[in-house]
Write a structure and sequence with these properties.
heterodimer; A: 395 residues; alpha+beta; three-stranded antiparallel β-sheet; 44% helix; globular; B: 348 residues; mainly alpha; 13 helices; 68% helix; 1% strand
């Protein structure tokens, strides 16, 4: 459909207007180039149809759907509410814990059940570890997008430690199926608390190391400051959330503003972009929000580990979950932003409808808006700073 | 060297063939060593161990890599301009190989002892641009074309700071012959052009700030000339999917890399010969002689190659306009000031 699409008229250069020094008229033309789905910097199978004038980007049209796996339709055909969780895992495969939690929370609120306190603490610990792991990938791959390879491997080295913790807990390293409706699948293994604390003490200096190598590197700042500026009003109009929104200076975090779990009992701060290196809402701000959120996540994990109460890890729930007829929308703060699950129940054992509000999908929609007029190298920087996961964009 | 060969082989064309093939004896082992170094250095910077299985600490891996590339299918896709596509990698390699002719490896060996050595070096090293442009165009791939266009503008821009900084060394040494430039700096560390050459002390002290600036600029421009990070825009992997060599496979691809590695040494050797005394020993008469000359030349050259590797795995990439900005608005004006000052000091 889009192959034969004509361009907006304001971008088509009138050949008569271009005069060369030798007096003749030269016809210049824009080049349409496909970036992806097999391009190294599209973070998966995103296809960008880019209209180029030399190195300058005239327009970007994102094409999605290469990883569509019918999550929502599949969910309707499960025999049990619990069975949706492994599918939710596979949405944002870099932050499975957060997806599980979002879905489980929605079902729990439909059932009006309270989970034991220990479960709430475990969930916070897992979600924040997951947030660090996810941001590490965002930051590392962002370095690669800009040509710095070493930070990427440093980030993966640290993420590996988090995955080891997850593996200890539930046996899986990527797709956990750990947070269940009414609790978690297993209790924490012995020694988990010590190892998680070890990780926190290990990880803090690594953030500083990363800042020295990448964040405050002169070339990195030149490549990201004042690039892809997303003003706060545009961000809100497009429905951006998470680090995208906070990078634009909007102080909004669902963990604080629409509290769930035990986030309101812990002490931490919401980090927003301040335009330190350029304009508020540029790529550097979005990047730096992620780095600073990792510090906050370490704080959260340490507090939760200290306060971790003893107790049961599974609430008493009916064997067959049958929520009352009705609907429920629950939103949580995933590493990418507002992850919402909208569930309609018809009183049977499987959901009538599940709609996932995917933060990466919504954030991606702002891409054409902020990348017009940039250069090819900038487009790579902008796509990287949006931090999309195609599994979640396409679902 | 030429006399020696003539006495063995007689006064035939064979002498020149052997003489011309001699740098190959250096380039091939050098490329293997550099591939190994690049992998190991980058790995240790990134908390990895790199190759460990082929031979002791993986020393045989570069050989295995070459064997793999030799066996790979050499594909030319149907949309490509086949003739240009085939010629391009060799043209790029010729550009860097021809530069070896005037590199003075030791007091006894230089491929071609010509008076315009430095001039020849500048001229020949830009030959590679044509090969890169040819590769990008013949690939019939938009990303490759963008890479090729970037490469041309980049290399042409960076020729100017290189030529200007070479000019400063030439002004001090009063010669365009690399062998003579090196002889000028004989006698130890203090006679290097970097420290003002064997001139009176007051002149040296006055020259030193300018030679240091020139030296740093030459190193930076040298990295840009060989298209390595932070100036690797023509083959920016994350932007252009390898740029001009996207469509190449097998041995043609390997030749692009061989040319890149050879070029790394050429710019290092150029910097070394012009500013760091070339083959001359840094300790005066200690450890000096034709064979030690080769040792010093290769050691100094390799130090710069390692520096380039170090920089590559540390820094992100510049954007295309920032690259031009550095060349035209930062380096070139600085060099004009340096040329003026050096000229003034030499006339005094």
């Amino acid at each position: 459909m889009t192959e034969n699409k004509t361009l907006p008229t304001e971008y088509v250069t009138n050949p008569d207007e271009i005069k060369t020094s030798i007096g003749k008229t030269l016809r210049t033309d824009e080049m349409i180039i496909n970036m992806g789905p097999q391009h190294p910097s599209t973070h998966g199978v995103l296809r960008l149809e880019v209209v180029l004038d030399g190195e300058i980007i005239v327009d970007v049209i994102p094409h999605i759907g290469y990883l569509h796996r019918c999550f929502e339709k599949h969910s309707e055909h499960m025999t049990n509410y619990q069975q949706v969780i492994p599918y939710a895992d596979r949405m944002d495969y870099l932050a499975s814990m957060c997806n599980d939690w979002g879905y489980a929370l929605a079902v729990e609120r439909m059932l009006k059940i309270e989970v034991p306190e220990r479960v709430e603490y475990i969930r916070v610990i897992m979600a924040e570890l997951q947030r660090i792991a996810s941001h590490l990938i965002a930051i590392g791959t962002y370095g690669i997008d800009l040509g710095a390879f070493t930070p990427f491997l440093w980030c993966f080295r640290d993420r590996e430690r988090i995955l080891d913790l997850f593996e200890m807990t539930c046996g899986a390293r990527l797709l956990y199926n750990y947070i269940w409706v009414g609790g978690v699948s297993h209790d924490l293994p012995p020694k988990f608390v010590e190892r998680a604390k070890d990780f926190c003490t290990y990880f803090r200096p690594k953030i500083k190391e990363l800042n020295d190598l990448l964040s405050f590197n002169e070339i990195f700042i030149k490549r990201t400051a004042n690039i892809g500026v997303l003003p706060a009003d545009v961000a809100i109009n497009y429905g951006c959330s998470g680090p995208m929104l906070r990078g634009s200076g909007v102080n909004w975090d669902l963990r604080r503003d629409d509290p769930y779990g035990i986030y309101d009992k812990l002490e931490w701060e919401v980090r927003v972009g301040k335009g330190e290196m350029g304009t508020i809402g540029d790529c550097w701000d979005r990047y730096m929000v992620r780095v600073r959120e990792m510090e906050q996540s370490v704080n959260l994990i340490e507090q939760a580990l200290d306060k971790l109460p003893e107790g049961n890890v599974q609430a008493a729930i009916p064997k067959r979950i049958r929520p009352e007829v009705g609907e429920m929308y629950v939103r949580t703060e995933s590493p990418r932003g507002e992850l919402g699950f909208y569930i309609i129940s018809d009183g049977s054992t499987s959901p009538y409808r599940v709609k996932a509000r995917s933060p990466a999908f919504v954030n991606l929609s702002v891409l054409p808006e902020i990348s017009r007029g940039a250069m090819i190298g900038d487009l790579v920087a902008i796509v990287g700073s949006v931090d999309i996961v195609l599994g979640e964009v396409d679902r | 060297m030429q006399e020696l060969l003539t006495s063995v082989l007689g006064d035939t064309v064979l002498v020149f063939v052997v003489l011309a093939a001699m740098p190959l004896l250096f380039i091939l082992p050098y490329a293997l060593v550099t591939i190994y170094l690049e992998m190991k250095i980058s790995a240790h910077m990134q908390d990895r161990v790199a190759y460990m299985r082929t031979g002791w600490h993986g020393v045989l891996q570069p050989v295995a890599d070459i064997l793999k590339l030799l066996q790979k299918e050499d594909t030319i896709h149907s949309g490509a301009d086949k003739t240009l596509f085939r010629i391009a990698p060799f043209l790029v390699f010729i550009g860097s190989y021809a530069s070896f002719a005037v590199l003075p490896f030791s007091s006894a060996y230089i491929g071609a002892d010509i008076n315009l050595g430095v001039f020849y070096l500048i001229a020949v090293s830009s030959l590679g641009v044509i090969g890169i442009l040819m590769a990008g165009w013949a690939s019939n791939n938009k990303w490759s074309l963008i890479g090729a266009v970037r490469s041309v503008s980049q290399i042409v821009s960076y020729e100017i700071p290189i030529a200007l900084s070479i000019l400063i060394a030439v002004m001090i040494t009063q010669s365009l012959n690399l062998q003579e430039i090196t002889r000028f700096q004989e006698g130890g560390l203090q006679n290097w052009v970097l420290f003002g050459g064997p001139l009176p002390l007051w002149q040296k002290l006055l020259l030193m700030p300018f030679t240091f600036v020139t030296f740093v600029i030459l190193m930076i421009a040298g990295i840009a000339e060989v298209n390595r990070v932070p100036f690797d825009l023509p083959e920016a992997e994350s932007e252009l999917v390898q740029g001009f060599n996207t469509e190449y496979s097998g041995m043609k691809f390997a030749i692009f890399y061989l040319a890149e590695f050879a070029n790394m040494f050429v710019v290092s050797a150029m910097t070394v010969s012009l500013f760091l005394g070339g083959w001359s020993s840094p300790f005066g008469d200690f450890m000096s002689g034709p064979l030690w000359g080769v040792f010093w030349f290769v050691t100094k050259g390799m130090l710069f190659v390692i520096l380039q590797i170090w920089i590559r795995w540390t820094l992100p990439r510049l954007r295309v306009d920032q690259l031009m900005h550095i060349s035209w608005k930062v380096m070139t004006p600085f060099l004009f000031v340096c040329i003026f000052a050096v000229g003034l000091i030499l006339v005094l």
